[in-house]
Structure formats: structure tokens, C-alpha cells
Write a sequence for this structure.
């Protein structure tokens, strides 16, 4: 369905989109470090058959935006207050890896799982870092990476999240960054385009961009036809680094 074919939108959907369109964070950190807000993301990385990096990152990005547009984070939803406390503070995402029983346990914690081409990622309802569910707290944050793959041209009907290959981010760092990008893109797009995107399950493609492609994408950011993520620089990259650029399909 094209955006033009959408005639009526649910009030809850409109409210979720309006919240994303308000902007990103803005509040400072609380004095108590245990009250710092973060969205935990769990990446399913089996030891014997690890997923393709590009598919796993696409699953992570899709899970994040799907959670942000879920009715349960909307008005009077069961996740609303936890989500808004995080959304309106200094937003953080933390990616952890899981396999086997760990992955099954993570699936029991409030959140949304997405599977793309066999790659699975789960975005959890945000909360204070001092109150992380024990099943999630025990999961490792670093230590595992995935090789870069070459998935070929992206589906022309899907948004593409372009990762700055020059930064050499780990898969966990990149997962957090593409999660930022999918949120920013949803907030920047007109609500009817986001609804059309929702009919495809918020699917997106993730691709690496080399220096030449990145320069072209930066021009698109400057002219307003693409959306960029600039990292705060807490881990891996320098403050202000442009990590991901999100571009909606031309036909949208």
C-alpha cells in the first residue's frame, strides 16, 4: 500500500509518531547513575551458525522502531511511562549478545523480537540501568563481532540505513546506531509514510558505505533528503561522529 492510499489512522498510531517527531532525548542524566535510562537490545548470535551481519543489524533497527510505534508505548499503554522516561532523557541503547537458553530467557522480558532472513534481534522496553532484569544483566555486552558481508542491492521499497564503514564499529555498537537511525527516520517522515512502512513490518536494509558513497549521503543530509545519526562519543567513536545515515526509498 502506498502512503497516498492510507485514509484513516488510529489515534494511538498518530500519538506514537508524534512522540518520535518531537525529537530525540533532550534531558540530562540523573545524579544517581543507577537511574540512567537505556534501551537494552539483545542480538541472537548462535555459536555454530552466526547470522549475517547486515541481516542482524536490519533486525535490530526494525525491532527498535517497531517498539517505538507499538500501541503499548502509546497513551495509556502498559509500557508508556517506562518508554517516555527513556525517550525524553539522554537516550542510550546497549546491545548484548545471547545464544541458546540465554536467548530463550531474553524472549520472556518485555520487548519486541524481529527476524530478518534468520537473523534475530530483540529490543526491550527501556528502563533504569540499575533495574535491568537479571536475565538481561548477565548477557555479555562486548567480545563478539561478525564479519562484514556483501548482501547486494537493497530492496528499492525499503529504507536503507547506511553505516559509516570508515569508523570500524563493532556489531554491538553498529546495532545501537542503526536503532537510533530507524527512530530518527520514523520521526522525520510524514505519518502516512510511516504507516505505509508499518504495513511492511518496519523492515529496512542495512548497508556499509565507503568514503565515496558516504560523501554522497552527506550531501543528502545537507539538503534534507536523508537523516543522520551523530554519536555522543561514549564508546568506540569520537563525539559528534556521523555513524549512520538513513534514507527513505525514492518512490516514497
Amino acid at each position: 500500500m502506498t502512503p497516498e492510499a492510507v485514509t484513516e489512522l488510529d489515534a494511538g498510531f498518530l500519538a506514537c509518531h508524534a512522540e518520535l517527531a518531537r525529537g530525540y532525548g533532550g534531558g540530562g542524566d540523573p545524579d544517581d547513575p543507577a537511574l540512567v535510562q537505556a534501551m537494552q537490545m539483545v542480538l541472537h548470535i548462535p555459536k555454530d551458525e552466526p547470522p549475517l551481519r547486515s541481516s542482524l543489524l536490519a533486525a535490530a533497527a526494525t525491532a527498535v522502531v517497531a517498539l517505538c510505534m507499538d500501541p503499548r508505548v502509546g497513551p495509556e499503554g502498559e509500557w508508556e511511562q517506562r518508554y517516555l522516561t527513556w525517550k525524553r532523557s539522554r537516550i542510550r541503547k546497549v546491545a548484548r549478545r545471547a545464544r541458546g537458553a540465554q536467548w530463550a530467557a531474553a524472549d520472556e522480558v518485555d520487548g519486541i523480537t524481529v527476524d530478518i532472513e534468520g537473523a534475530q534481534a530483540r529490543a526491550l522496553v527501556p528502563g533504569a540501568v540499575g533495574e535491568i532484569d537479571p536475565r538481561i544483566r548477565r548477557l555479555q555486552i562486548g567480545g563478539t563481532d561478525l564479519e562484514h558481508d556483501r548482501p547486494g542491492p537493497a530492496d528499492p521499497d525499503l529504507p536503507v540505513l547506511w553505516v559509516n564503514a570508515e569508523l570500524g564499529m563493532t556489531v554491538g555498537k553498529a546495532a545501537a546506531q542503526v536503532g537510533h537511525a530507524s527512530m530518527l527516520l520514523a520521526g522525520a517522515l510524514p505519518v502516512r509514510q510511516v504507516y505505509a512502512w508499518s504495513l511492511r513490518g518496519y523492515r529496512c536494509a542495512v548497508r556499509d558505505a565507503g568514503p565515496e558513497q558516504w560523501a554522497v549521503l552527506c550531501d543528502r543530509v545537507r539538503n534534507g533528503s536523508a537523516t543522520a545519526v551523530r554519536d555522543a562519543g561514549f564508546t568506540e567513536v569520537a563525539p559528534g561522529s556521523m555513524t549512520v545515515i538513513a534514507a527513505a526509498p525514492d518512490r516514497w
